[in-house]
Amino acid sequence: MRTYSKFERKLVFSSLLISFLLSMGGQASAMHIMEGYLPATYCVAWGAICIPFLVMGIINIKKTVKDKPKTILILAMSGAFIFLVSSLKIPSVTGSCSHMTGTGLAAILFGVSSTSVLGLIVLIFQAILLAHGGLTTLGANTFSMAIAGPIVAYLLYNAGKRMKINRKVNIFIAAALGDLLTYCITSIQLAIAYPSPDGGVLASALKFLAVFAPTQLPLAIIEGILTVLIIIGLETYAVPELKELNYFDN
């Protein structure tokens, strides 16, 4: 369990306060949602919610670089994996798309907050270089892909460890369901921003989920398999680095 200095605790508390105040400015509602698709209040609200995670992520990455320098290459590789697989998009519904997220790997190895920073960096590059997502929807996309999904992957992985589930099976489940949760959140976010005239937010969310499901279910399975394969490679060639990350601890 990492301990934070007094300054770091104040920084995290301040970010939580800022997040709360900004998110009160409008209704909250987005994953790679295109530029200009969400109203401004929704963009601000989702961006504000991301702030505490990003602040903690920067602190944790700084600690990792300082205390576990051998793991920097794996951290960079985790970010590259997110960029690669989340750039392979399949059109799914107006204003969005289906693709793997790649964040389960980083969440398992480095935790949720560090993953949020990696995801934000990836989303910025994709918005600028690939016109994938957008700068106005950056906060919304960060929350769904780099925070919500990793939270599920991290919790499931650690629960599986406590239940003594086979490590490879555990990793597959965590990565695949973390991917799927991202799209559940995206569907809910889009539904909040654009509720159905008949049935409101719930009906709209179900419609988005129905459109996403045919492409996202197989993609989640593929992401789970890819994550397991990468872990197998790391267990073969990066044992010292994994030990520094306490990966082998039960």
Automatic annotation (TrEMBL):
GO terms for molecular function: cobalt ion transmembrane transporter activity. The keyword Cell membrane applies. The keyword Transmembrane helix applies. InterPro entries: CbiM, CbiM/NikMN. It is found in: Cell inner membrane; Cell membrane. It is a multi-pass membrane protein. Gene3D superfamilies: 1.10.1760.20. Pathway: Cofactor biosynthesis; adenosylcobalamin biosynthesis. Keywords: Cell membrane, Cobalamin biosynthesis, Cobalt, Cobalt transport, Ion transport, Membrane, Signal, Transmembrane, Transmembrane helix, Transport. Pfam families: CbiM. GO terms for cellular component: ATP-binding cassette (ABC) transporter complex. It comes from the Bacteria. One of its GO terms (biological process) is cobalamin biosynthetic process. The chain crosses the membrane at residues 40-59, 108-131, 138-157, 169-194, 206-234. Its main location: membrane. Part of the energy-coupling factor (ECF) transporter complex CbiMNOQ involved in cobalt import. Forms an energy-coupling factor (ECF) transporter complex composed of an ATP-binding protein (A component, CbiO), a transmembrane protein (T component, CbiQ) and 2 possible substrate-capture proteins (S components, CbiM and CbiN) of unknown stoichimetry. Belongs to the CbiM family. This is Cobalt transport protein CbiM. The gene is cbiM.
